């Protein structure tokens, strides 16, 4: 038995389902922006003409030095249609049933956003008929299979290069005109002739019905799941940068330097995406309102790169300030890790100072990196510059020198001299008699 999924009868759903869902579980409310987590398998039928074309394409591609992945199958081992067609004495009987897709091969289910203009609209129409844990078979005819070839070919290509945590059919088509600098899948990409040769079994989808078995693993309402990188707006990326940075700050306060480093690096990736966006409104991001509580706070003792939050509100600093702060924080975690990486301390401190040459934290952390590398003169210059900047924020220089940050910096400067003398004396003892 079959029922129509669409009014034109281009999609049929076989009943009863292959796996019956729990009747006590309510049907999903398929609102735009919902997330469907689904496993799929797909089959089509290969005609003799298409098989001949396939052999020609494969032979031509092999002659050009192309190789094929594990998703290609020997036609002699293909599944035959259940109507009794089969192999006899190794002679192929046409048409034969052939599997052209299986998400389980990729190791993880697909995630499909509902209500977006995706390439494969037929899939969404089928999903809307399912309940969680239901598994059903659909038959899609021409006009409803458009987009499957592009998506399956791209998933195969991605699978050959990496093992994705979640394969995805989330990418919007290019017709939407959305900026997508970090899209994980090129769902709307145009396939080249060599792509067709490498995916010969997909050619028949253009002329034959597509049998699609779907199992709805889970359903997530809008706002209950994390967005994929590809669908984040510039403002989303900015907010994600701030969230990752705050999490890194929290881990730093607990001395979890390695974990903090990971969050700061993620924050830096989001910030770089914001800075490279062609649609960014920097002025808007830099001048977002600060809460009244934050506006009332004194900022005289705050470093330019400080990130302040109160009652859920956050100071939105300029891009350069955030870049400076993140690199300064990365310099700190590399300095604190065991063992410290002094070269990376200097690298990130340099990046910090490129954005803010008056960053006292950047200067102090670069000085620490130079000390670890034995570059004493460079360490002294940075500490002396940091002391000058620290004293410049107050007219009461005598009190500053007697206590507070300036005194700490003077102590650090004195330690550089001590460490240099100790190192040089040790070197003399170790190598002084070599050339006598």
TrEMBL record:
<dbReference type="InterPro" id="IPR050754">
    <property type="entry name" value="FKBP4/5/8-like"/>
</dbReference>
<feature type="region of interest" description="Disordered">
    <location>
        <begin position="292"/>
        <end position="313"/>
    </location>
</feature>
<keyword id="KW-0697">Rotamase</keyword>
<dbReference type="InterPro" id="IPR019734">
    <property type="entry name" value="TPR_rpt"/>
</dbReference>
<protein>
    <recommendedName>
        <fullName>peptidylprolyl isomerase</fullName>
        <ecNumber>5.2.1.8</ecNumber>
    </recommendedName>
</protein>
<dbReference type="InterPro" id="IPR046357">
    <property type="entry name" value="PPIase_dom_sf"/>
</dbReference>
<dbReference type="GO" id="GO:0003755">
    <property type="term" value="F:peptidyl-prolyl cis-trans isomerase activity"/>
</dbReference>
<dbReference type="InterPro" id="IPR011990">
    <property type="entry name" value="TPR-like_helical_dom_sf"/>
</dbReference>
<keyword id="KW-0413">Isomerase</keyword>
<feature type="compositionally biased region" description="Polar residues">
    <location>
        <begin position="292"/>
        <end position="302"/>
    </location>
</feature>
